[in-house]
Specification:
Strand content: 15-25%
Number of domains: 4
Radius of gyration: 27 Å
Bound molecules: flavin-adenine dinucleotide, iron/sulfur cluster
Number of helices: 17
Structural class: alpha/beta
Strand order of the largest sheet: 6-5-8-3-4-7
Distance between the termini: 23 Å
Number of strands: 14
């Protein structure tokens, strides 16, 4: 079974990357120079003040221990599910009381030395000892459970939650607190990726408020979910900003999203690791969709998760659709699909969704760019354009692969080319020395073309779409002529 929690980049700022040096300075250096522990006092004051306005923002963005867990230990962590014991309110409460009681007891003891030189060393050492304890316990939990296990019951986290509650009560937090915000839940793929990358192992996608905000006071505002959402709908924003975003988000292409029950009518192996699944709709019996849209396929109930797949079939009578799925190594969803999806099985779908790849047929010239499995929507799109080209006089498909044997649906595209003199089918291969056709990447083909007047639609892995957008901008293609989806 593939792992639910996936590793991703969490280091977005220099402080998050190198903050751990402060931890080691205090926790290790403090053993010889206890006064280093005094540096922790401004840290505690700062986190308390900040949390009053912005919840646990400190933990996700400035905490030196957090940097140790995320920057140094995460790459070698087991990254397992955090046992509910570490999240229990009893553990959190008991640990907070024990920690505070101990700290106060030590302060009282040291205060007897006030006025002497030893006082500052002893006071500093109180902080050094707690830093060392967090480094050791938090570090071990990081390695053997999950990097941010400690943060679930950290007394400083609890202190911030209390300060935040006060900030909310007074009303200041509302103005400054930037929570995880979804532009619209209509566009959410329910893929659970935000939960799978969350260091605190929270499930934002299941808990958005009516203002589309994730109201958790455990959330450390680290932006990891924001950076990883495949739908690109997440941001950190205040309540006021959330309302504005919600009002201004255009949901064209998503307005007909509905729950669909279907059965797997046909399974067609395309390659060893690629299968085409045809779903026949049961309820409702007819679902209209546009070529270029995608559909969500449910992979499990608990937690509820779907995977997005471009519709690869041309819509003949709205009673069925096909998707073409590539099995990912260690892929959570594709392993479930490849193992459990059999002909006759009932499946739950949601959609249709998407507008980026719905071709504007009022345009005269269009270029379609596909990389790898990103070819799937174009199978439907090209068929549609050959049948109903609208205003189009010229449409080209540039299809890139690493090796020549990776192309799929090649015969179909060749046939479609023979059916329409408006359609040009161009293949490009990156690494195959025996390939006699165009060599390189899709970007190399585009660089050699005159793109004046073309609308460009792209689908493929993110590095491909990112590189292509960059090339197109350098070629002075205006942004409103570029449309893309990353598969
Ligand atoms: C609009 C849209 C359309 C799409 N259309 C298609 C389509 O037509 N066909 C298609 O095949 N796909 C398509 N996709 C991609 C699809 O939605 C899934 O993302 C894909 O099938 C992989 O799902 P998964 O759950 O198997 O992989 P995941 O488990 O989500 O893994 C994703 C990647 O992370 C890696 N990974 C897994 N575990 C770990 C770990 N522990 N640490 C680090 N990395 C890890 C995997 O190797 C994989 O490369 C589309 C996506 C979008 C957004
Ligand atoms: S919900 Fe998002 S911002 Fe909050 S802790 Fe999880 S990943 Fe970070
Ligand atoms: S990561 Fe997936 S589930 Fe989470 S908000 Fe984005 S699209 Fe929705």
């Amino acid at each position: 079974m593939s792992a639910f929690y996936i590793k991703t980049n969490r280091i977005f700022t220099p402080i998050r990357k190198y903050g751990w040096t402060f931890t080691l300075l205090v926790a290790i250096g403090g053993i010889w120079f206890p006064k280093l522990g005094l540096l922790v006092i401004p840290v505690i004051v700062s986190l308390l003040l900040l949390s009053f306005f912005k919840g646990r923002y400190w933990c996700g963005n400035f905490c030196a221990h957090g940097s140790l867990f995320d920057s140094l230990l995460y790459p070698i962590s087991q990254n397992r599910k955090i046992p509910s014991f570490f999240k229990s309110k009893y553990l959190i409460g008991a640990f907070f009381i024990w920690f505070s009681f101990n700290l106060i007891r030590k302060f009282i003891k040291v205060s007897a030395l006030f006025g002497s030189m030893a006082f500052w060393d002893k006071l500093g050492f109180i902080f050094v000892a707690s830093y060392l304890m967090v480094t050791i316990i938090g570090g071990l939990l990081s390695l053997f459970v999950s990097p941010r296990t400690w943060c679930n019951f950290c007394p400083m986290g609890s202190l911030q939650r209390l300060s935040y509650k006060l900030g909310k009560l007074i009303g200041v937090a509302k103005k400054f607190d930037e929570k995880v915000t979804a532009a619209t839940t209509e566009m959410c793929h329910t893929c659970g990726k935000c939960a799978r990358v969350c260091p605190m192992q929270l499930t934002p996608y299941q808990e958005f408020s009516d203002k589309n905000q994730f109201d958790s006071d455990i959330c450390i505002r680290c932006s990891t979910c924001v950076e990883n959402c495949p739908a690109g709908i997440l941001s950190l924003g205040t309540e006021e900003e959330a309302i504005k975003i919600k009002e201004n988000t255009d949901i064209t292409g998503y307005e007909n999203r509905q729950k669909i029950t279907a059965v797997i009518e046909k399974i067609t192996p395309i390659k060893d690791d690629i299968i085409e699944y045809t779903f026949k709709f049961r309820s409702p019996e007819k679902v209209d969709y546009n070529e270029g849209q995608f559909i969500l396929v449910k992979i499990q109930d608990e937690p509820e998760m779907y995977r997005a797949y471009s519709i690869s079939s041309y819509n003949t009578d709205s009673t069925r659709l096909s998707v073409t799925i590539k099995k990912m190594e260690n892929g959570y969803g594709t392993n479930i699909i490849f193992d459990q999806f059999k002909e006759g099985k009932k499946v739950e779908l949601e959609g249709p969704m998407g507008k980026e790849l719905v071709i504007d047929k009022s345009a005269e010239k269009v270029i379609l760019v596909a990389g790898g499995i990103g070819i799937t929507p174009f199978k439907a799109i090209v068929k549609d354009l050959v049948k109903h080209s609208g205003n189009l006089k010229d449409f080209k498909l540039i299809y890139g692969a690493n090796y020549a044997n990776e192309f799929i649906y090649d015969d179909e595209f060749k046939k479609l080319q023979s059916e329409s003199d408006k359609f040009d089918y161009i293949k490009v291969v990156a690494f195959d020395e025996n390939w006699k056709g165009k060599k390189g990447f899709v970007t190399d083909v585009m660089k050699d073309m005159n793109l004046q007047g073309y609308k460009i639609y792209m689908c493929g892995p993110k590095p491909m779409t990112d590189a292509s957008v960059k090339v197109l901008k350098n070629m002075n293609v205006s942004e409103d002529k570029i449309y893309y989806e990353s598969a």
